């Protein structure tokens, strides 16, 4: 299938609505390791349709204001420390899509989306996509998280992206439902509060109670421990905002890493 981005009809409306995904990405080491998480992403890639392009909302790109990458060849960003040299040398040379970036700017009315030519693909994006689409030949654009805004803003912005699912664009949120690095542990089991919150969020998703999820700060002590800072949780709100009544819902990779990282992931399919 061709991904010629010069075609003016590349992002025209289609009867096929693409899936939307929230993926718990965990450690960047998952990009180069063969483990239960990386294998679940590989298996996912075998079942997904091939999109014209991908729009990713990653926990690892926070800005003041909302920005979208608009370069033709985004660099692979190694935004971490303390890992093996092999990981720092890893490249995911997927192309960008100025055309998709422009389309995002046009359809978003909630705020002015500014084009960015300096960021690239951070590990929240490439560590999962290298397993889902290992050929790195699908154009990718990242949308930033405005750190100055409340969760309800991010959910509302996600709703404005719905039309992209019918225009050949797969939207992926990359973060973690539970993400507390202060409590990382090499024990096999997760903390009780982490399991409690992960379970609660999945139950609320199944009920369609997005309001309670958007207002996660009201969900008690387990929520406070699970989400000490919101950047890894906010990408989930974008994906839930895309959900429509006709979508089927399934969870995958429903496990924990290092005690306080939930790898639970969500797939919405028409």
Automatic annotation (TrEMBL):
Coiled coil: none annotated. Residues 23-246 form the Extradiol ring-cleavage dioxygenase class III enzyme subunit B domain. GO terms for molecular function: ferrous iron binding; stizolobate synthase activity; zinc ion binding. Pfam families: LigB. Its cofactor is Zn(2+). Its EC number is 1.13.11.29. It comes from the Bacteria. Keywords: Dioxygenase, Metal-binding, Oxidoreductase, Zinc. Belongs to the DODA-type extradiol aromatic ring-opening dioxygenase family. This is 4,5-DOPA dioxygenase extradiol. It comes from Candidatus Chlorohelix allophototropha.
């Amino acid at each position: 299938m061709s991904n010629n981005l010069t075609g003016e009809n590349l992002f025209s409306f289609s009867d096929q609505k693409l899936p939307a995904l929230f993926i718990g990405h965990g450690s960047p080491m998952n990009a180069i390791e063969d483990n239960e998480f990386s294998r679940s992403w590989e298996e996912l890639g075998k079942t997904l349709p091939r999109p014209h392009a991908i729009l990713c909302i990653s926990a690892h790109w926070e800005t003041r204001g909302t920005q979208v990458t608009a370069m033709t060849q985004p660099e692979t960003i190694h935004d971490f420390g303390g890992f093996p040299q092999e990981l720092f040398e890893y490249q995911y040379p997927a192309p960008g899509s100025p055309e998709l970036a422009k389309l995002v700017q046009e359809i978003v009315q909630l705020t002015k989306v500014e084009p960015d030519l300096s960021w690239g693909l951070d590990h929240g994006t490439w560590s999962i996509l290298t397993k889902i689409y290992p050929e790195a030949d699908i154009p990718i654009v990242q949308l930033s998280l405005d750190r100055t805004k409340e969760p309800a803003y991010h959910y509302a912005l996600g709703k404005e992206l719905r039309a992209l699912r019918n225009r050949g664009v797969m939207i992926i949120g990359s973060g973690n439902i539970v993400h507390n690095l202060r409590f990382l542990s090499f024990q096999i089991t997760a903390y009780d509060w982490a399991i409690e919150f992960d379970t609660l969020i999945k139950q609320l998703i199944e009920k369609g109670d997005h309001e309670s999820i958007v207002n996660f700060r009201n969900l008690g002590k387990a929520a406070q421990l699970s989400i000490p800072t919101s950047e890894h949780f906010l990408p989930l709100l974008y994906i839930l905002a895309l959900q429509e009544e006709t979508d089927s819902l399934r969870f995958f990779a429903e496990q924990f890493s290092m005690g306080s990282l939930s790898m639970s992931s969500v797939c919405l399919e028409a």
